[in-house]
Amino acid sequence: MSSMTDIHPDAVLASLLDKGARSNRRANLTKMHEVCRRQHAAGSRDFSLPSIGRLVEAEGIMKGRALYNAPSADYRTLIEAWAAYAGPPEPKPPKSLASHDYLMRIEDPAIRSIMQAIIAERDKLKAQINVLKAHTQVTVDRRPLGATISAAPGTLPVAVLSLSAQLTPSEREALQKAVSASYLEERGLKEGSHGEIVNERGRTVFEVGFARAIRKVLG
User: Fold this and answer.
1) Where are the beta strands (DSSP E) in 63-114?
2) 60: left (phi over 0), alpha (psi -120 to 50) or beta
3) Residue 170 pLDDT grade (very low, low, confident, very high; cuts 50, 70, 90)
4) CA dihedral of 115, 117, 120, 126, whole degrees rounded to 10
5) Residue 202 and residue 193: Cα distance in Å, rounded?
6) pLDDT tens column, 13-45
7) Cβ-contact 41, 33 below 8 angstroms
8) Helices (DSSP H) in 45-95: which residue ranges?
9) pLDDT tens for residues 43-91?
10) Of the candidates 64, 81, 2, 80, which has an alpha carbon nearest to the alpha carbon of residue 28?
């Protein structure tokens, strides 16, 4: 409630009991009234449903969550009467930041000022990072390197890996070396006009298209 009232909760309880409720309900209303009376006598102005619910549940009167049910309207009316009678709850003191407590322990004003500026800059950077996190979308491409996407009508896309992309670095180096002019020359071989590999006598060692095929595989 936002303001106090002169209506004592005793009168509200009496009105609720006069409704002719069952004996068990009348007993629970009376017990809850006593719980609220003790809460008020202790100087507390917290008559929220969660707070009173915990108290009545601790005393075995009823489950705290039952206060939110429709049949518990009379209990809520009684609690609201106590809340209006006690007045609005005291505002909670603002929580001091841990960094503020740390700064207050620094006796030297100059050092305290420097640390305050550092903390302010840190908080600014943290806020910027949080903004970036909220607007960052990372896309992970798990397709193999060198793969191309192929899709026929009515089918799902498929990653197609080229032959050259399947080679390891050592395999690629070996094939490149096998058709290089210097390597062939060292072994008395040479590449013919149609990609065949021949020896010093002109005899074919590797058939026509051999060198060209390797170069195609290498891409």
Assistant:
1) none
2) left
3) confident
4) -80
5) 12
6) 999 998 877 889 899 999 999 999 999 999 888
7) no
8) 49-58, 73-86
9) 888 899 999 999 999 999 999 999 999 999 999 999 999 999 988 877 7
10) 64
Contact 144, 159 (CB under 8 A): yes
- The amino acid at 117: A
Tokens at residue 219, please? 């891409």
pTM of the model: 0.42
For residue 192, give every residue at least 6 positions away whose Cβ sits within 8 Å of its Cβ, in sequence order, or none.
Answer: 198, 204, 208
* Pair of tokens at residue 148: 């191309």
Contact indicator for 200, 184 with CB cutoff of 8 Å = no
What is the rounded CA–CA span in Å between residue 60 and residue 30?
13
**pLDDT above 90 for 172:** no
The 10 Å CB-count burial string (b at 16+, else e) for 103-126 is eeeeeeeeeeeeeeeeeeeeeeee
Find the distance separating the first CA and the last CA of the chain, reported in whole Å. Answer: 80
Give the contacts of 189 (CB within 8 A, at least 6 positions apart): 197, 198, 199, 200, 205
- Scan for tokens 């990609």, then name that residue: 195
